[in-house]
Amino acid sequence: MPINDFLCSLADDQAECAIGIILSGTASDGTLGLRAIFGAGGLCMVQEPATAKFDSMPQSAIKAGYATYILPPEKCRRNCWNFRGRKAFVNKYRELFRRAAERT
User: Fold this and answer.
1) Where are the domains of the chain?
2) C-alpha distance from residue 82 to each of 2, 24, 26, 45 (Å)
3) CA Rg, the chain, in Å?
4) pLDDT digits (tens, 9 = 90+) for 6-23
5) Beta partners for 55?
6) According to CATH, what is the number of the domain 2-103?
7) What pLDDT, in 10s, does the model give residues 33-70?
8) Is 44 helix (H, G, I), strand (E, B) or coil?
């Protein structure tokens, strides 16, 4: 499933700095991808099912136990910003920016 593939790739590349968000949708796409992000120590947010037009994807992720937070969509942005303050996130991107600066 495309969302699972994307989120698994994100987890492989970004590890504990990955952020996965599952919003309104049908079926269970995204649940396996969130498992990868969750296992890598990343942030997994899921739309509160009561606020979703289609709640199958959020319900699947919640039932599987991979939701770090269950929120209405408008609160996801704040959690992303808060997550950016985590030490691993800051250190990883500080190093990437340092390397980029050395190449220029």
Assistant:
1) 2-103
2) 27, 23, 29, 13
3) 15
4) 999 999 999 988 999 999
5) 25
6) 3.40.50.180
7) 999 999 998 999 999 999 999 999 999 999 999 999 99
8) strand
